[in-house]
Amino acid sequence: MSTTRRQFLSRAAVAGVALGAPSLLAACGSGDPRSASGCDGYSALTPQELQARQGLNYVDASPKPAQLCSNCMHYTAPAEGACGGCKLFAGPVLAGGYCTAWAAQAS
Ligand code: SF4
């Protein structure tokens, strides 16, 4: 049985995703069900910390394309992986996230 170049590339892509996905998940933690992003950190938060986060209506995907955590003055970029942070509350924050405290970075 011969394998075409297309079949080989397709299988290699599937294998790459299968092998890479666990390491990506490990980089961001085990996947707390409260976190749509899969970034760990929610389970370690106190009720008060969760309340602070929820009080600002944080979401992992911003509904405002021009207002993202990544261009907010309160965002702290991750050293590696996808889970950054926010200076206003504890726990993981994604670059594409948003909350009602968004403020433009100083230029
Ligand atoms: S204040 Fe809100 S928008 Fe700004 S980094 Fe924190 S969570 Fe993201």
UniProtKB/TrEMBL annotation:
Presence of keyword Transport: yes
Occurrences of domain High potential iron-sulfur proteins family profile (ranges): 40-107
Chain coiled-coil ranges: none
InterPro entries: High_potential_FeS_prot, HIPIP_sf, TAT_signal, TAT_signal_bac_arc
PROSITE patterns, alphabetized: HIPIP, PROKAR_LIPOPROTEIN, TAT
Signal peptide range: 1-26
Gene Ontology biological process terms in this record: aerobic electron transport chain
Gene Ontology molecular function: 4 iron, 4 sulfur cluster binding; electron transfer activity; metal ion binding
Protein name: High potential iron-sulfur proteins family profile domain-containing protein
